[in-house]
Amino acid sequence: MHSFAVPPSSLDGIKRLAKTLKRERSIPHHQALEEAARIAGFENLRHAQRQLERGVRPTLYPVFLTAYWREKGRGGRETLRIELAKPLPQVVRRNQLNAVRQLAGFRLDADDHLERELDVERQDTAQRYLHDAAEALRFMVATGLVPVTTQAMHRKLRFLQEMPGHDHPSEWLDPASGSWLYMDEPYDHHGPELLDRRRSWLRDSSVSVVAPAWKGLYVPGRSVPYFVSADAALLAQLSRQVATLSEESPQPWAGESDRYGTAFLSPAREAAGLKPRRRPM
């Protein structure tokens, strides 16, 4: 799965992206234009038109993701650069990393750099970890969600583990509304009837479930994401937001590959006058 790493920065770019979204999502053209404008970092299409006419461009923040690998006497470092509409510290905090499956095992090395602490066994595995981490960050930027980190909220949502077909869960909070979101991503062999079974299971509660038009974060293409919440407005909002995350065939590695012993020094860490941080043995 690949999300737009560099959002469009012109009206023509927004229009081109809208055509892609319209085709991929089977949505009306006007809706595709609004979604494309939001991907570009604007509130809506009209906001994009006003700002771009004045020469104002949305600010994008570079973020670097690093992982190390060793295999049969060989090894290396992989670093992926992405761009987000928010600075990394506004997307995820240090204490939230291990609460996100795709970010667990990473440490916040600098305000623009996440580094995986332990080695992995293969180069392609290291690259996959970085792509997965990038998709999780893009999901968090697109939705504004943050992971649940309190035991009280984990206990509150524990009953959802009994849902039919429950698998690969993650728990989120929407800071804007204070509402919670429970997402799980079972493998797709359950079939489309699983959504009806879940709605039947939840019918006596105030909780709703939807299956958004999105391939999710856990093994995209082989699993199906479901959103569960007591806030119907949040479910509708999130379904629109994740529809802007475009799924395409896996892309060639576009990051930096270097020797195992070379540490990556991010621009933010260098600007602070700091040396590369030592890694665990």
Structure write-up:
This protein is of the alpha+beta class and 281 residues long. It has nine helices and ten strands. Strands 3-4-1-2-10 form a five-stranded mixed beta sheet, with helices on one face. A five-stranded antiparallel beta sheet has the order 5-6-7-9-8, with helices on both faces. It starts with 10 loop residues before the first helix and ends in a 10-residue tail after the last helix. The relative contact order is 0.15. The model is unreliable at 1-5 (pLDDT under 50).
Can you count the helices? 9
Mean pLDDT comes to 89
Task: State the helical fraction.
Answer: 25-40%
Instruction: Round the Cα radius of gyration to an integer and report it.
Output: 20 Å
* Major sheet description: 5 strands, mixed
- Residue share in β-strands: 15-25%
Strand and helix layout:
Blueprint: H1 11-25, H2 29-39, H3 45-53, E1 61-71, E2 74-84, H4 88-91, E3 106-110, E4 113-116, H5 123-143, E5 146-147, H6 151-156, E6 169-173, E7 180-184, H7 193-201, E8 208-210, E9 226-229, H8 232-242, E10 256-259, H9 267-271
Parallel strand pairs: 1-4
Antiparallel strand pairs: 1-2, 2-10, 3-4, 5-6, 6-7, 7-9, 8-9
Q: Main traits of this protein?
A:
five-stranded mixed beta sheet, five-stranded antiparallel beta sheet, 10 strands, alpha+beta, 281 residues
What would a concise description of this structure say?
The chain has 281 residues and is of the alpha+beta class.
